[in-house]
Amino acid sequence: MGISFTVLSSGSTGNATVVRNEETTLMIDAGLSAKRIDELLQERDVTGEEIDGILVTHEHSDHIKGLGAVARKYDLPIYANEKTWEAMEKSIGKIAEENRVVLGTGEVRDFGSLRVESFGISHDAAEPVGYCFYDGDEKLSVATDLGYMSDKVKQAISDSNVLVLESNHDIEMLRMGRYPWNIKRRILGDMGHLSNVDAGEALSELLTGDLKRTYLAHLSRDHNMMDLAKMTVRDSMEERGCFYKDSEFKLCDTYYDRPTPWDKVSEP
């Protein structure tokens, strides 16, 4: 079976992704209400009882809004590093001690035949992380809420077959938008979010024969559009001499209001 995944929801209104193989089903973040997460899971023919645990990237509400409720409802272990646990404990309510699991940044853990590795990222949270998933020769990486693409992040997600990558905002739309300047400065800064141009620049370095698809994720509803993000990412890549055909490499959509179709990492 290998690795398959669906991005249930992506954006500032809530984030959740399901990754599974033949033995294990894991959720990354639970940033929507428990009711809404159940609805999105049902759309992809998954039940909460099938989930084996929840991996947390960081403590912001669009990543943990339903975390405590989902974990209690289905008696699920939650995996996060110690600083994230400290930052989110008051927000998620009481969690059974056996379900409070520390997964350190950079730690590798096997869930049956599904191997998970976390890596540190730059964002204005206690100790934010992304995740890589391995099954045999397959590799899926999830990297959102990035202030910038550091060399360490590039190294962590290199050689991925499929990548879920932040493409949060169009720089000019953000600059001209309604947000106060202090919020704009935060988003544009090294602890904020990755722009479309930055995503394209990163992909121009990451695109190898191994990388087949990239899902552009965590798009701002106020300062971005999927078609614009794709166009800008392509232009940014081509400006850096990275040309490709859609038959060789694809940019894929994510949505804030519906899940992506199941994607098998092994598929061409």
Please explain how this structure is put together:
The structure is a single chain. With 268 residues, the chain is of the alpha/beta class. It has 9 helices and 14 strands. The strands form 2 sheets. A 7-stranded mixed beta sheet has the order 6-5-4-3-2-1-14. Strands 7-8-9-10-11-12-13 form a 7-stranded mixed beta sheet. Strand 10, helix 5 (151-157) and strand 11 form a beta-alpha-beta unit. The chain is globular, with a radius of gyration of 17 Å. It starts with a strand and ends with a strand. InterPro entries: Metallo-B-lactamas, RibonucZ/Hydroxyglut_hydro, WalJ/YycJ-like. Residues 13-218 form the Metallo-beta-lactamase domain. It catalyses: 3',5'-cyclic CMP + H2O = CMP + H(+); 3',5'-cyclic UMP + H2O = UMP + H(+).
What are the salient characteristics of this protein?
268 residues; hydrolase; Metallo-B-lactamas; seven-stranded mixed β-sheet; 14 strands; 9 helices; alpha/beta
Helix content: 25-40%
Shape type: globular
Assembly classification: single chain
Structural class: alpha/beta
Provide mean pLDDT, rounded: 95
The count of β-strands is 14
> CA-to-CA gap between the ends?
14 Å
Largest sheet: 7 strands, mixed
Instruction: Report the total helices.
Output: 9
Strand content range:
15-25%
| Widest sheet: strand ordering | 6-5-4-3-2-1-14
SSE sequence, one letter per element: EEEHEHHEHEEEEEHEHHHEHEE
